[in-house]
TrEMBL record:
<feature type="transmembrane region" description="Helical">
    <location>
        <begin position="16"/>
        <end position="34"/>
    </location>
</feature>
<keyword id="KW-0812">Transmembrane</keyword>
<dbReference type="InterPro" id="IPR037682">
    <property type="entry name" value="TonB_C"/>
</dbReference>
<keyword id="KW-0472">Membrane</keyword>
<dbReference type="Pfam" id="PF03544">
    <property type="entry name" value="TonB_C"/>
</dbReference>
<protein>
    <submittedName>
        <fullName>Energy transducer TonB</fullName>
    </submittedName>
</protein>
<feature type="domain" description="TonB C-terminal">
    <location>
        <begin position="180"/>
        <end position="239"/>
    </location>
</feature>
<keyword id="KW-1133">Transmembrane helix</keyword>
Length: 242
């Protein structure tokens, strides 16, 4: 005898389907539990914006200054009344005569005008001049170099004899070595000109000019056989004692 069983009441018939649905449900619940986030209430700030609370800006009331209109322009000046005065005085007219000559006038011939040549004072430095100026007493020296040395020695000896070395003490200058630079020129006639001195005191410069101005007349220097101006410079050095 076969047991009587309703086939619809068989539970094991859909067990695989129920297993799959349960597994999917559990996976969904597990995923939601993992991704669930919570927030602290203290971090949430609730604020409201009231659009009715607007800042009211006070506009300053400015006073409008009404500038007065410019004054009207002055009326035009009345025209001057011109009086017509009759000429009673006679004015002599100036007659300009023509400077053109007539065909018959004789032309006077002008003789040739001679232009005098003005010789410029050529200046040749002492170091390059062909024939140096000769100091009195150096005429016997042979050669330009020997005459230069002789002139230099003679000028130094002359300054040593004539220069007042006690002047520095009278001027109240401190002790020590004093130096005065002197420049002068020997012109084409052999005279001493254009004396310039530069020193520590105007009194010393004046004394140096006085001494150099007393140099004797020399035989002028020559360049290419013609007398020329020769500049010369020399220092004057002396010691002021305590």
């Amino acid at each position: 005898m076969e047991p009587k069983k309703n086939p619809k009441s068989d539970v094991s018939r859909n067990s695989s389907l129920y297993f799959a649905v349960g597994l999917a449900l559990m996976l969904g619940i597990t995923y939601m539990a993992i991704n669930y986030k919570t927030y602290d209430k203290a971090d949430i700030i609730a604020d409201t914006l009231n659009l009715d609370d607007e800042l009211e800006e006070e506009v300053p009331i400015t006073e409008q200054i009404v500038t007065p209109p410019p004054p009207p322009p002055p009326p035009p000046a009345a025209p001057e009344i011109i009086e017509v005065v009759e000429d009673e005085e006679e004015i002599e007219e100036t007659v300009i005569e023509s400077t053109e000559t007539e065909m018959e006038a004789e032309i006077v011939e002008v003789e040739e005008v001679e232009v005098a040549e003005v010789e410029e004072d050529l200046e040749v430095p002492f170091s390059v001049i062909e024939n140096v100026a000769v100091f009195p007493g150096c005429e016997k020296e042979k050669g330009n170099a020997a005459k230069k040395k002789c002139m230099n020695d003679k000028v130094n000896k002359f300054i040593g004899r004539k220069f007042n070395t006690d002047l520095a003490g009278d001027l109240g200058l401190p002790p020590g070595r004093k130096r005065i630079f002197v420049q002068f020129k020997v012109d084409k006639s052999g005279n001493i000109t254009n004396i310039v001195a530069r020193g520590p005191h105007p009194g010393l410069e004046k004394e140096a000019k006085r001494v150099i101005g007393g140099l004797p007349k020399m035989k002028p220097g020559k360049q290419r056989g013609k007398p020329v101006v020769m500049p010369f410079s020399i220092p004057i050095v002396f010691q002021v004692q305590d």
